Amino acid sequence: LHLIHEVNEQTNSDQYPIVVHCTAGVGRTGTYIAIDAMIDKINQEKKVDVYNFVLQMRRERHLMVQTIKQYVFIYRSLLEYYIYGNTRIEATMFQSIYSNLRKNKQ
How many domains does the chain fold into? Predict the structure, then answer.
């Protein structure tokens, strides 16, 4: 999730397309594309249809999302994003955030 967030922060996909490619261009590539697209759907509509999205990708490029592990990873990643959002903390902010969390716990 952090990688997707960083790529989207550093690029302007409205102006230029983002190229995603693993060794074969299907398994990890499809997994990355599915997670990125479904995060956009969560942000816009608060719902996703992973099955039909992957099915559509597979109509356009055979074997996108190659394994059941990759398919499950998509669901787990989206669940984590939906529940927790972006939880990235800069190292310089860790101590103060950690202290605040400990105070709130007590």
Answer: 1
Closest CA to 9 of 45, 29, 36: 36
The domain that holds 84 is classified in CATH as 3.90.190.10
Closest CA to 39 of 12, 5, 73: 5
Task: Give the burial class of 38: count Cβ atoms within 10 A of its Cβ; 0-12 exposed, 13-18 middle, 19 or more buried.
Answer: buried
- DSSP calls for 29-46: HHHHHHHHHHHHHHHHHS
Q: Contact at 8 Å (CB) between 88 and 2?
A: yes
Give the SS3 label for residue 48.
coil
Whole-angstrom CA distances from 19 to 8, 33, 69 are: 12, 10, 23
pLDDT in tens, 31-50: 999 999 999 999 999 889 99
For the whole model, what pTM was predicted? 0.73
